[in-house]
């Protein structure tokens, strides 16, 4: 009898152990559930095939297709700025025949970018508007370092840095330009009192205001305007804001509420920062404003600017260039 009872107890213990084990297998712990992830059945090998290739022209992107390999003798140069010609890239031949930015994006979403230059500043402006995005990551880089980065990435620069870089770039193509500034007369704060842009000289000696940072040119009745005329048209109701390129301008690598504010009400922002024009020549910097605001502007810049009335400002910084 005792033996029978012991056998029954052993069988019961074995059954209980089995159920406990099954319970552990069928009900994994919360930690184990969190650690499990689906594993893809297929692995995709890297490939040199391009997802897309195009060149930019103004606000357009124009598809670029490979041509006969027999046309190519040279590999794509390592420099950002290249001369027109046929170049080999990833065992394919491409014709860099027109001014603008050429962009090649492979299956790993890595970009190769090259610039074919031009004597028309609009071609260069469009190309660089596609390359540059407002940000601060690259502000400390030199001109040569920025050219190197531009071969495969966006440039993240603030207004003053992109304007200085662009003036240097235009100079390599024999295009005259200058950095210009503006200041608000509204209540000052610690972050949004002015702006830096540039003016580019046309063949007839006139200056055109260009904001590469914000991807804009400005016109009244179809005529592109300079900084002085922009500041005189401070209501901006009759000023057209034209895109240089159809790129994405906001730096999405970090949250930038100021840029969201600007694009949320662009004309209101320009009305604020565009009230006082400031232009430097080789030796001095000049501004013009209503007489009641002169002292306030000079105090903001610690008396480093020279005041000119509107007529003298225009004569010295605009009309005189028409005679050169």
Q: What would you note in describing this structure?
A:
This protein is α+β, with helices and mostly antiparallel strands. It has a domain at 158-322. It is built from 10 helices and 19 strands. The strands form 4 sheets. Strands 11, 12, 13, 14, 15, 16, 17, 18 and 19 form a 9-stranded mixed β-sheet that branches. A 5-stranded mixed β-sheet has the order 2-1-7-8-4, with helices on one face. A hairpin with a 4-residue loop joins strand 17 and strand 18. The radius of gyration is 31 Å and the shape is elongated.
Which shape, going by the Cα principal axes? elongated
Taking the alpha carbons of the first and last residues, their distance comes to: 125 Å
- Rg for CA atoms: 31 Å
Secondary structure category: alpha+beta
Mean pLDDT figure: 83
Question: What share of the residues does DSSP label as strand, in percent?
Answer: 25-35%
The tally of helices reads 10
Annotation, overall tally of beta strands: 19
Q: How do the helices and strands follow one another from N- to C-terminus? A: HHEEEEEEEEHEHEHEEEEEHEHHEEHEH
The biggest sheet amounts to: 9 strands, mixed
Give the proportion of residues in helices: 25-40%
Uncertain regions spanning at least 5 consecutive residues? 2-9, 18-35, 39-48, 250-255
């Amino acid at each position: 009898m005792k033996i029978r009872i012991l056998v029954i107890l052993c069988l019961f213990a074995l059954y209980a152990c089995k159920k406990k084990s099954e319970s552990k297998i069928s009900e994994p712990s919360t930690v184990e559930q969190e650690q499990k992830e689906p594993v893809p059945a297929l692995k995709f090998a890297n490939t040199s095939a391009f997802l897309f290739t195009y060149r930019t022209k103004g606000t357009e992107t124009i598809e670029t297709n490979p041509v006969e390999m027999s046309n190519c003798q040279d590999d794509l140069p390592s420099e950002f700025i290249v001369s027109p010609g046929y170049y080999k890239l990833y065992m394919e031949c491409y014709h860099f025949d027109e001014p603008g930015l050429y962009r090649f994006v492979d299956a790993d979403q890595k970009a190769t970018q090259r610039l074919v230059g031009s004597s028309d500043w609009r071609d260069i402006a469009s190309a660089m508007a596609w390359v540059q995005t407002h940000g601060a990551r690259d502000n400390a880089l030199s001109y040569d370092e920025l050219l190197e980065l531009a071969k495969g990435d966006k440039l993240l620069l603030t207004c003053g840095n992109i304007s200085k870089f662009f003036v240097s770039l235009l100079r390599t193509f024999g295009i005259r330009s200058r950095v210009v500034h503006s200041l608000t007369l509204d209540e000052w704060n610690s972050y949004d009192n002015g702006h830096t842009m540039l003016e580019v000289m046309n063949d007839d000696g006139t200056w055109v205001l260009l904001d590469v940072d914000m991807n804009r040119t400005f016109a009244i009745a179809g005529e592109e305007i300079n900084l002085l005329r922009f500041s005189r048209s401070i209501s901006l109701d009759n000023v057209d804001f034209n895109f240089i390129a159809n790129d994405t301008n906001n730096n999405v690598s970090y949250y930038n509420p100021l840029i969201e504010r600007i694009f949320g009400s662009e004309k209101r922002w320009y009305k604020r920062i565009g009230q006082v024009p400031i232009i430097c020549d080789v030796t001095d910097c000049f501004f013009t404003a209503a007489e009641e605001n002169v002292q306030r502007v000079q105090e903001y810049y610690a008396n480093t600017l020279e005041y000119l009335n509107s007529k003298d400002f225009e004569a010295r910084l605009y009309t005189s260039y028409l005679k050169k």
